[in-house]
Amino acid sequence: MTKISEKVHELKDHAEHAEQEIAAAQKETGKKVDAAIDSAKAAAKMRQDRFKENVVARKAAAASDWETLQVEHNKRVEKIKKTIAAKKDAHDRNVANRRADDAEGYASASIDYALMAIDDAEIATLEAIDARAYAESLT
To answer: Taking the CB of residue 121, how many other CB atoms lie within 10 A of it?
Structure first.
């Protein structure tokens, strides 16, 4: 399993990359913005496919749309929070390790979700830049 610190670093790097791509797109021509949109969509699809593969590999229920994914995500959050809070005083090392594994799995899934949200935000912003450039070209 990937360490949580590595996942957080990946999240930070991904957000910085999206910010750089958006800043660059604001200065580009329509064709280059279109290419950036296509590239961002391809990267987002790869990340979503990898996430779905990881979910299947862990035998977890995967949602096909964002709304269902959010509901499941919120349920997992509550379950893990309750489990951690209720069993913090447990002295059994195996139980503590399983609980830690669950908490790390939740953190990892949350970061994957955040990465996909950044992908969507980047694509939406690039498409907005493209739409504004097109609208301005008509005047």
So the answer is: 14
Q: Which helix (H) or strand (E) is 27 found in, with range?
A: none
d(CA 31, CA 130) in angstroms, rounded, equals 9
**pLDDT averaged per 10 residues, the chain (length 139):** 76 89 83 85 87 69 57 76 63 77 83 87 87 89
Question: CA-CA distances (angstroms) from residue 55 to 49, 62, 111?
Answer: 10, 6, 13
> Using CA atoms, how far apart are residues 31 and 45, in angstroms rounded to an integer?
21
Closest CA to 84 of 70, 71, 102, 58: 102
What confidence score (pLDDT) does residue 122 get?
A: 87
Q: Residue 116 contacts by C-beta under 8 Å, 6 or more apart in sequence? A: 44, 47, 48, 51
H-type alpha helices, the chain? 4-25, 30-57, 66-87, 93-137
pLDDT at 63: 42
- pLDDT score at 94: 75
SS3 state of residue 9? helix
Is there a contact between 21 and 40 (Cβ–Cβ < 8 Å)?
yes
